[in-house]
Amino acid sequence: MRTIAREQSLAVQWEGSVDHFALLFRLNSNHWKDWRSDLRDHPEQWFRTGRRRPQEISAGIPAIILGTGSLGLVGYGKTISAVHTKSDPNWHLAPKEHQDWYKQSESRVEVRIVIARCPLERLISNSVVDHIRRTRRETATWLTSEQYREFRSMMP
After folding, report:
1. Which residue of 47, 74, 134, 145 has the lowest C-beta tally within 10 Å?
2. How are beta strands 84-86 and 106-118 bridged, if at all?
């Protein structure tokens, strides 16, 4: 709990707003088949920021990594960079049919990830988390401090 309290304190300092406390990143297991060993070997990964404003994203923002489909919660972490326009440096690890998509120069942020699995069945039992899981389809979206706490409370 001390870590979450420190992260909340950082959020208040960051732009003075708790509404943009953390980032939720979606991990597509259809594109990233071997994500578990990749994250174990390389916990720093680049995620597309989509329509998020680059100037609002910097190093030190808490992150939640949520899998698509039935994958469930993958882990948590923090951004370790600002937004950069670049291709994914690991594009070659993607399935052949998706490599061109990952080669595209896009706004991306680097995130250091700690694997902390929570199965889908458990996520569904929390109405706040389940609603976010079902409605947040973009690769990156903002979470409030309360939403972030809900996700973290589900992790081992």
Report:
1. 134
2. antiparallel
